[in-house]
Amino acid sequence: MTIPTPIGWTSDLSVRILDQTLLPDQERYLDLQTVDQVAEAIRMLRVRGAPLIGIAAAMGVTLETRTGNTLEGVRAAAAMLAATRPTAVNLQWALDRMVCRARDAVAQGRNLREALVAEASAIWDEDRAMCVRIGAAGAALLGEDALVLTHCNAGALATGGIGTALAPVYTAHQAGRRVAVIADETRPLLQGSRLTAWELARAGVPVTVIADSMAASRLRRGDVTCVIVGADRIAANGDVANKIGTYGLALAARAHNVPFYVAAPSSTIDPATPDGAHIPIEERRDEEVAGWRGHPAAPPEAKIWNPAFDVTPAELVTAIITDQGIVAPRDAAAVRG
Q1: Sign of CA dihedral 92, 94, 96, 102
Q2: Cβ(263)–Cβ(235) below 8 Å
Q3: Burial 1-37 (b: 16+ CB within 10 A, else e)
Q4: pLDDT score, position 45
Q5: What is this structure's pTM?
Q6: Which of 212, 232, 239, 310 is catalytic?
Q7: Which H helix or E strand runs over 247?
Q8: Which residues pair with 242 in a beta bridge?
């Protein structure tokens, strides 16, 4: 099973990323050497997915120590990176860890760069392990000939390991079970068709791409075992922020009695956010909806509304698959502690 590695260190500890904006046409890696370059990569979705942008930001903070060696510089770098995307809680969680590690290193008279590289590497390692545990927990929900419907990309391209929503699929597939996936194309940036289908095909998992508007009709056919999606933030009450279109998919799943699961590491759960109404929703550029790679898809006179995420109420979520097991949405905050 071939799983892509979307991030890593170079020999000189630059940050190497797979530029996901070019997939599936080109598989090109970029070596990022400054905090500004990492911030641009996150903002422009060259690196994306809640767990992965946390890892990328943590690695990005280490680049500040190439030109400076102060706690103030680390804090400034973390603030810049935190401002790139407001919805995914993993970003701020990882940056808080990096600033805390920097503060401890300075107080103890330790080498700041070495301490930060070690912490960023630990965040990456922990994410890989969390993905494995999510896969093991979720695979128990998938019997032989399971058909999973997913939205956006919550696979290896969105994490440091085998993914969140796709982790149960990969785990079942690797165990020799027959499992297949239906991937919503995920407008407006087509992360489902460009990314999810690409990585599943490379892994040898059968995948069918559908337009987002076809999902309800497919659920009505009765052949979908379950829906599994990722999350960018899970509020204390179990409300889930994920890629725009997830809410509609959850409504369709409920209407057709199809289980709707959210797969996410415990770091995505935010006990400080009481409910979905308090989750900041990122709004992105008009151009993402008005056209596609330079080709207009709407008249210039049309107004555009382009939220990157929506919120699915906890009552529409069957369960949350975490690295600490499968829990009811109302119990999500307890997982984070």
Answers
A1: negative
A2: no
A3: eebbebbeeeeebbbbbbbbbebeeeeeebebebbeb
A4: 96
A5: 0.95
A6: 232
A7: helix 246-255
A8: 310
